[in-house]
Amino acid sequence: MPNEPTGKDFLVKAARHIGERYRLGVIAPKNNKNWKGPWDCAEFCSWVVYQASGILYGCSSSTDPSLADAYTGFWARDAKANGTIISLAEAMRTPGAALLRIPASNLIGHIAFSDGKGGTVEAHSTKRGVIRTVAGGRRWDMGVLVPGIVYTPLADAPVSRPVPIVLRLTDPTMKGERVREVQRALKAAGFDPGKIDGDYGPKTTIAVYAYQVSKGLTPDGEAGPDTARSLKIPWT
Predict the structure, then answer these.
(1) Residue of 50, 111, 115 whose CA lies nearest to 75
(2) In a 3-state reduction of DSSP, which class is residue 207?
(3) Does the pTM of the predicted model rise above 0.85?
């Protein structure tokens, strides 16, 4: 009987693609073992899962792995329906666990593989492509384990890093002077956030997303340190 696929298998396969290109919205044929990108974050993770295990996860309803569209929203759907949702602390010490940022309505979130030591392997952005980077100090919503995969958490938890302030679409909406700073900077950069009212609503979210796409940043519609740095806004 063949060995059961493991979370570490995900990391091995993912690491072989470091340095490859990112392209938002691309579809990677999950059954093409020779695919070398481009990737977006969800396509990268779903392709790796399929290659390591034959499981089509985090994808549209299509059962054809060459056509199935991966999306962070589908990852959230599958995690809630037939996966295992774990705490972020546990995910960060579990090699191959997925770290998921759930998308706002009509946008995309973000997803990465945890290396179990406080780092990630992920298709990050147009600017950076597929990289190793840190898991801590970033906003995530949940950790996800794919069913049928053997995971082995590491004994030592990675060093915790505080999560910075991240503005995003919530209900009720986030409000305040920091939101106004983002809105003013977006307007100055040629992106319409709507009324400069300090309310992080749908129009501001879409403007942040459009700005992120134009600058090759992770396009999630959330304003955190990377987006603020690009907009030249102090962020502490």
Answers:
(1) 111
(2) helix
(3) yes
